[in-house]
Amino acid sequence: xxxxxxxxxxxxxxxxxxxxxxxxxxxxxxxxxxxxxxxxxxxxxxxxxxxxxxxxxxxxxxxxxxxxxxxxxxxxxxxxxxxxxxxxxxxxxxxxxxxxxxxxxxxxxxxxxxxxxxxxxxxxxxxxxxxxxxxxxxxxxxxxxxxxxxxxxxxxxxxxxxxxxxxxxxxxxxxxxxxxxxxxxxxx
Length: 188
Hints:
Layout: H1 2-36, E1 41-44, E2 51-57, E3 68-71, H2 77-85, E4 100-106, E5 112-114, E6 118-120, E7 123-124, E8 152-156, H3 165-168, E9 171-172, E10 176-186
């Protein structure tokens, strides 16, 4: 009996230590997030990619298909409208946009067709259905499709409501901040 009570006390202490560690980690998150951008880290709060802490890793080569990147959107009318509608957040990129986190699915020379879904070089891109209305019921504009110009990339996210190149087309690769590497993430 004494042994059982003693063990139960150890379990409680162990649970208490675990709870304390989680509480301290939770309380440290705002400090981590505040300094994250300055240290090459970004916090992703959008469902385009898993939520959480990501690291920006320098990309010492041209972007390739399959790279998940952080990229500054260009200052265009489409991006201005996107921010007005709440698709984009404010941040430190030119035009005061926050960087996007997306996967490069097409590079220079790829042939794009966009209808009900995205077709790249004749192959349908999975999870690329094009929505005609956003979550608020507003009409969406789909990009028409072209051959990806030199120095540009076509971006995608498998999240159905993602605002990506399906709607704004290829954008300059010069806006790439680096490859996105997961640090502490959660995919709901």
